[in-house]
Specification:
90 residues, mainly alpha, 2 strands, 4% strand
Length: 90
């Protein structure tokens, strides 16, 4: 992707994201980790987030926007490309 916007940038710039093909054996079983259907814990997660927001608004807790919501360590918002963490089926 190349971004060309002279109102923002002094010169065009390009970003590239390389994808690596996973083996067909690994693709045989794929579990979508971001899917929330059937995730009965989602209600509790959202209720906890709203409670934290109310506590902050009442000056009884830290700002939830500054707290880690699950991207701390591990995948950190993405997926591992290599090693044991790259296997979604383990």
């Amino acid at each position: 992707m190349t971004v060309e916007d002279p109102t923002v940038w002094t010169k065009p710039w390009t970003a590239k994201h390389q994808l690596k093909r996973q083996s067909d054996a690994a693709n045989r079983i794929y579990i979508e980790p971001r899917c929330h259907e059937g995730n009965y814990g989602m209600t509790a997660l959202l209720a906890g987030a709203r409670a934290a927001e109310r506590a902050f608004a009442q000056r009884r807790g830290p700002d939830p926007a500054t707290q880690c919501l699950g991207g701390c360590g591990g995948f950190a918002g993405g997926f591992a490309d290599e090693g044991e963490d790259a296997n979604p089926v383990r």
